[in-house]
Design brief:
The complex is a heterodimer of chains A (437) and B (116). By secondary structure, chain A is an alpha+beta fold. Chain A is 33% helix and 26% strand. Helix content of chain B is 24%, strand content 16%. With 116 residues, chain B is an alpha+beta fold. Chain B is globular. In chain B, the strands form three sheets. A two-stranded antiparallel sheet of chain B has the order 1-6. The chains are: A alpha+beta (437), B alpha+beta (116). Bound molecules: flavin-adenine dinucleotide and iron/sulfur cluster (2 copies). One iron/sulfur cluster (SF4) binds next to helix 4 and helix 5 of chain B.
């Protein structure tokens, strides 16, 4: 396809972080770019936990921290292990994360995505909202040459289509890039945004000014495998759970019921008490990493962000926005080069895969490839929290007149009491060490 | 899928049984009222009740975070598209081919999460 025969150079589908970065890069290179978003504004359909790790933006928006719509800078990160009556917390603080270039930031997605898409627009990309892409247009050889939309006369052609249409990516599926879709590979995130006065949040979470907290929780989701989270915004907190969707039916537990139980836990209740529900929301997460990833390119099309299952969901890590921004950026760069070189076939676009492979996008996924399954396994979910909490409880318990028992004995006893086989414990420990170590 | 008014036909639903007022004091309707939905008259998701008749798992009823699949007293199912998060959970957990035909709503419609 030559430029004269297509409407534009690049069509980006989806105004999330992947789409905004793809459009930004392509527009800056001087290409004609249209970004299509089905919501009334970019970010309007998008929900997450919330913490963004924006360092990849150093390459696109220097000193982004001066202007990004941030709620709080995360200076305190905790991981909690819960049983019905116990809680073990590992708590870390860093002063450095409160200062530029920072580390994580809590932000509302409708704000953040809107801001990021604004940069693409400023670079010359045309952003068309309230427009749903309904399918691909392909030539006789099967190459993607455009998209259909739900507008009257809504067909639009381009030399490259970048599909950033999120977790359900009907475009990647239509292009045949996914071999199959397996419900086991998805988790459902549900969240409550609770309003509390800023001073109350500061006091309860032990922070000041713009400093904020990120809490990841294991063992908080009843019989349904998953995890929980609490994040602090300026005047709200986000409380939610991430749930294996295939387990909900089996356990006959509803999502909002699991949040309600989490909020009642003795270690959580004091943090969320009196919070007034501002918004209830839900969204899927592609959870299985490398196990579910599609082919990233086909003739005329690239896939980025959640559409390509690039979200990193590995227990204490839940990062997707940074992976979306980076893959969108690399997709944009690849499209620019391919168009300049006059080859937008699968071969011409093949460099995208290399860019992903050579950077954190696929390197982190390869390193943590065993983590999602381990973290969601029945042992980590249902047996280990009890075992670990009981060990710690016995170490701290002063049971006079009895003397303190030896740690090794406690370990062995609690392992047996929790019904954990030594072999499994060693194997999981080794898998964890290789993944996270 | 019949066009009956769901409110007249629902039996006690898991969401009401499992999330009593004691948990946060909000009814499910009050919970859903906190999210904004720009409703389109045309349903973006259509459920074919005749296919559901042979379904033993009925996972959609428990898994849908918006609680839009509601069992009826006669063992059937009513679905209402209006307060849908467009998440995709239902078509993924449903293992009956053809029960759910799932699309995004027309551009500009459906759920809108809030800006500050
Ligand atoms: C509960 C939960 C918690 C999370 N927590 C975190 C976290 O703390 N930190 C983090 O970094 N990540 C987190 N994530 C993951 C993160 O939200 C995603 O990885 C990220 O949003 C992916 O960005 P994206 O641009 O690929 O897709 P999306 O943000 O989903 O954007 C896709 C866009 O495409 C549009 N679209 C889709 N289809 C069409 C169509 N046919 N036509 C037009 N437009 C279309 C959508 O409206 C949307 O705007 C979380 C996710 C969930 C669900
Ligand atoms: S799971 Fe599918 S077939 Fe079963 S009741 Fe729900 S929609 Fe119908
Ligand atoms: S898409 Fe999500 S919210 Fe909508 S009906 Fe299906 S499960 Fe419910």
């Amino acid at each position: 396809m030559s430029a004269s025969t297509t409407d534009v150079d690049v069509i980006v589908v989806g105004g999330g972080p992947a789409g905004a970065c793809a459009a930004l890069v392509a527009a800056r290179a001087g290409l004609s770019v249209v970004l299509l978003e089905r919501g009334p504004f970019p970010g309007s359909k998008n929900m997450y936990g919330g913490v963004v790790y924006p360092r990849i933006l150093d390459q696109l928006i220097p000193e982004w921290w001066l202007e990004a719509p941030v709620q709080r800078w995360v200076t305190r990160r905790s991981t909690m292990l819960l049983t019905d009556t116990q809680a073990l917390t590992v708590d870390f603080r860093s002063e450095a994360w409160g200062k530029p270039p920072h580390n994580g930031a809590t932000a509302y997605r409708p704000d953040f995505d809107h801001w990021l898409a604004g940069h693409a627009e400023a670079a010359g990309a045309q952003i068309i909202t309230s427009t749903t892409v309904t399918g691909l247009i392909r030539d006789a050889q099967g190459a993607v040459i455009g998209v259909r939309t739900d507008r009257p006369d809504g067909d639009l052609t381009a030399r490259v289509v970048i599909a950033c249409d999120g977790v359900n990516s009907f475009l990647a599926k239509e292009a045949g890039l996914y071999e199959h879709t397996d419900a086991k590979h998805f988790t459902l995130g549900v969240k409550e945004t609770l309003a509390l006065p800023k001073e109350v949040i500061d006091e309860r979470f032990g922070v000041r000014g713009r400093d904020g907290v990120d809490i990841e929780i294991i063992g908080a989701t009843g019989g349904v495998n998953g995890g929980g989270f609490i994040y602090t915004n300026l005047e709200t907190i986000a409380v939610g759970v991430v749930l294996k969707i295939t387990k909900l039916g089996a356990q006959q537990q509803r999502p909002e019921q699991i949040i309600a139980a989490l909020k009642q836990h003795p270690a959580i209740a004091p943090l969320v008490q009196d919070g007034e529900l501002k918004e209830y929301s839900a969204h899927l997460i592609p959870e299985a990493g490398l196990k579910m990833m599609p082919k990233m390119t086909t003739a005329g099309m690239l896939v980025a962000g959640d559409a390509a299952a690039l979200c990193l969901a590995a227990g204490i890590w839940l990062e997707g926005v940074n992976f979306a921004m980076a893959s969108g950026m690399y997709a944009g760069e690849t499209a620019v080069e391919a168009i300049a070189g006059g080859d937008t076939t699968a071969t011409g676009l093949a460099d995208y895969q290399r860019r992903l492979s050579d950077t954190f996008v696929l390197k982190d996924h390869r390193k943590l490839r065993r983590a999602p399954e381990l973290v969601l396994s029945d042992r980590v979910q249902h047996l280990y929290p009890t075992m670990v909490a009981n060990v710690v409880e016995r170490m701290f318990r002063v049971d006079n007149p009895n003397p303190k028992p030896g740690v090794r004995r406690i370990l062995a006893q609690e392992r047996k009491r929790a019904g954990v086989r030594r072999r499994d414990l060693l194997r999981d420990g080794w898998t964890g060490f290789r993944s996270f170590g | 899928m019949s066009t009956v008014n769901p409110a007249e036909h629902v039996s006690a639903h898991p969401a009401e049984i499992l999330a009593p007022a004691a948990w946060g004091g909000l009814s499910f309707q009050e919970r859903m009222a906190t999210a904004e939905f720009r409703i389109h008259h045309q349903a973006h998701i259509v459920v074919d009740g005749s296919v559901c008749e042979g379904c033993s798992t009925r996972e959609c009823i428990v898994a849908c975070p918006a609680n839009l699949f509601v069992p009826t007293s006669d063992g059937g199912l009513v679905f209402n598209h209006e307060q849908c998060f467009e998440c995709g959970t239902c078509y993924l957990v449903c293992n009956k081919e053809g029960a759910i035909s799932w699309n995004y709503p027309e551009g500009g419609h459906g759920v809108v999460f809030r800006r500050t």
